[in-house]
Amino acid sequence: MKKTFFIILLAAVFMPLSAFENHDWITEFDWALSDGRDIADPSARSSQVDWIGFRTPIAAFHKFHIPSDSVLYQVRLRNEMFYFVYQTEEEKNIFFPLEKTFFKTPLNFEFNNDFSVLLLTRNGRFFTRQERVTKLINSEYPLIGIWGRLPVLTEYGLVNHSDCLYYLEIERDIPGYAVRNGTYLFKQTGDKVFESISSFPDGRMRLEIKSQTEIILTPLFTLPDEKGWVAPLRMRCSLYNPRFSREDY
Fold first, then answer.
1. Contact 197, 164 (CB under 8 A)
2. Is 107 helix (H, G, I), strand (E, B) or coil?
3. From 236's CA, which of 1, 127, 147, 206 has a CA 20 to 30 Å away?
4. How crowded is the C-beta side of 119, counted as CA atoms within 13 Å?
5. Burial of 170 from C-beta contacts in 10 A (0-12 / 13-18 / 19+)
């Protein structure tokens, strides 16, 4: 079975280029991230780091599908993670997660005290209570702003999700880099180029498909040096794909 699995997977990776025109093939594999500082600065090659085994950050692409009338929010947890939730026209008091992310269960929410308190429940049970930190910015979308306190300081921003095609899930912190883990939503801007749609400056990045096995992820923001390297990352197609059942190999 192991031999059969690798034959099938390699065949999929090296299909003719014409089979990859819509780019949906990127969702079929996991992608291992590696140090790409030398892409922008060749002198950085001597200081590059290699992440080995379980230390290697892994990412996966998914097709983006939510109801067309949904309101989509990008959420920043502290300064460490991004993810998305959405409301539908029929169920305006429920946060739904994107289909394939770490946040699996919808949350019910309500506002108290003139939109100054946010109450969240899950499966009918109390989940958390957060007080507004920033002023009310938009009365039509009162969720926008910062809520809570450390270690659960949460910021919500409104996102225009029209024409977005894929979202990228980075499953763990990337050692040394300013790029955070979490979820990023992408819109196509060129033949093989995508840019993220983000409510926050440090959530903006560009994807360039270089080949059937390599994608370059480049931050489109700046941060102080002590926040980590603001530099490109290589994404390479991983032959070991956790989304395949272990019974397959």
1. yes
2. strand
3. 1
4. 9
5. buried
